[in-house]
Amino acid sequence: MEHAANVLFSIGPLEVTSTVTTMWAIMAILTLLSWLATRNLQEVPGPLQNAAEISVSFLRKYYAENLGKKHAEKYFPVFATFFVFIIICNYSGILPGAGHLTGFAVPTACLSVTAGLGVIAFFTTHVIGIREKGLGHYLASFCKPLILVVLMLPLNLLEQFIRPASLALRLYGNMYGEEMVTETLYDIFPIGLPIVMNVLSLLFCMLQAQVFTMLLSIYVSEAVEEEEA
After folding, report:
1. What is the distance between the alpha carbons of residues 97 and 32, in angstroms, rounded to a whole number?
2. What's the CA dihedral at 47, 208, 212, 228 to 10 degrees?
3. Does the residue 122 lie in any domain?
4. For residues 6 and 19, is the Cβ–Cβ distance under 8 A?
5. What secondary structure does DSSP assign to 26-66, as a single string?
6. Phi-psi map region of 32: left, alpha, beta (phi>0 left; psi -120 to 50 alpha)
7. Closest by CA position to 72, among listed 62, 84, 86
8. Residue 9 lies in a domain
9. What is the pLDDT of residues 150-180, one digit of tens each?
């Protein structure tokens, strides 16, 4: 019943929900802001270009801590896209009417969205690992140590599928739980508490985006790390 109420319209057999329309709006806004920030770069940046440069500089340093400067520079667009998309999706829940207005929902409070992000993270990790090491060497890394290959290979493979599932469930559980708790507290304490909760949500939403991308950067770092001689 809740799913049916969340469907806004259909395109053929595909049902378009409020989560989907919110994601479309977020992607459109991010695309527009990116274009406006980079279409006419100046030596003395304006407010939008300056905000973009500060954000890029911060994220480059952040990912370099786990990936190293070489890989952080090379794959920065991937990790920055994950971070910006997730944090904007998270922050959409702070807007008035989030979770209530028709056509508007917090994407990261939906399991299908976070599962999709987990799947993308899964392929990102292994595509980068294969690209950096080559297919043969990358696959061989799952058989280390050789003396325990019969035991370690199944465990290593299982771990690769558990990782994206944990990323998806962690992000979904935290955002869905935060949304439910906030709504409940709003009903109990409608005056004063909403301001406090919105301030806390700003920190909480950023933390969730950082955790997701930090763990992904660690997984990629493990996938591309060189074996010691």
Report:
1. 24
2. 90
3. yes
4. yes
5. HHHHHHHHHHHHHTT--SS--HHHHHHHHHHHHHHHHHHHH
6. alpha
7. 62
8. yes
9. 777 788 888 899 999 999 999 999 998 887 8
Q: Which domain holds residue 44?
A: 2-224
Length of the chain: 229
> What residues contact 206, with CB distance under 8 A and at least 6 apart?
87, 90
- Look at the chain and report how many structural domains it folds into: 1
Q: Can you tell me the distance from the alpha carbon of 59 to that of 212, in angstroms, rounded to the nearest whole number?
A: 14
Give residue 143's identity as a one-letter amino acid code.
C
Tokens of 50: 């300056």
> Is residue 229 situated within a structural domain?
no
Start-end of H helices in 92-148:
111-133, 135-140
DSSP state of 145: S
Contact 179, 91 (CB under 8 A): no
* Structure confidence by residue, pLDDT tens digits, 61-88: 888 887 888 888 888 889 999 999 999 9
Residues 168 and 184: their CA atoms lie apart, in Å, by 24
In a domain? residue 35: yes
